[in-house]
Amino acid sequence: MTMTAIILGQRQPFRGLRRLDPRRDLRQVAGLIAATFGADLDAEGRAALRDLRFLSRLGPLIGFVLAADPQWQRFLNGYVWIEEERVVGNLTLQSGGRYGGRWYIYNLAVAPAYRGRGIASALVKAALEEVQRQGGGWVTLQVEEDNEAARHLYERLGFEPLGGISHLTLPQPPEVPPQIGDVDLRCRRADDWYQEYELAKAATPAPLQWWQPLRSEAFRLYPEERLGEWLDRLIGRRRTYRWVVEEDPQGRLMASLMVRATRWRGEHQLRLIVHPDARGTLEEPLIRHALAVLNSYPSHPTVTRHPAEHRQAIEAFLAHGFHLRRTLVAMRKKM
Asked: pLDDT tens digits for 208-222?
């Protein structure tokens, strides 16, 4: 007589979609984000990943952190996809608070072995359903320009592109310093802030301004900021240079250039803004001017971000040795 053993009450491991549980998911989520985006993360992204890994090591104590600072909970909201008792998909969903009922999707990642199974689509749909329940007006996200599969997914779900931001890196300044460009530069004054704000509004495509509204306060040089920059220069840590190009006696700015040069480890930073009326003439001499200044500093990488639609600037950066790391396309969906 053959006996068959029957095990009663054995539960199958959970698989599929569920909400992110910071206490048990963060370590695997951090690993998934690092594996998916690690090579392309900028300094800000690397800092965020370090914070996530730090939180993941707190274990049960993370509950106290979330209770003590509810802001962390806002950054740890989202969904995961579970297969074989591990996180193979992740999506972070954040509320934009007072800015027009906007919500933001970040860190959509699926492990390579599980792609093409509809996991990304299920994660995004779950996020959209939550936004709708919360009465959100818009959902925005960013996607790499050359990630056609992801872009097609978002388009099928009703997202529209707003424009791209190109991230460029110069591994080290040229060995032979370029000649300073033939352009009438002057040092930016503290009272130039409003003219520079107007310049940025003219130079930034309207859809990108909707996505990341320009705030006039961002162009003011407050006393504490000037003091911090003076102290950085005094101790030899780094120095911030700011120049502008004027067109006429009325003081309308046609371009601005900011270079933050570091002597310690890190990255040099460059920011260029050119008025649409001056495009094609100022980009090349201004970039040469920046590189001539950086040539006297340690050969750290130089990084910059720039609207992708400003092709004259992108081409000038590439001509001077910058590498296009990636272009992130902003997209939105009205709920």
From this structure: 999 999 999 999 999
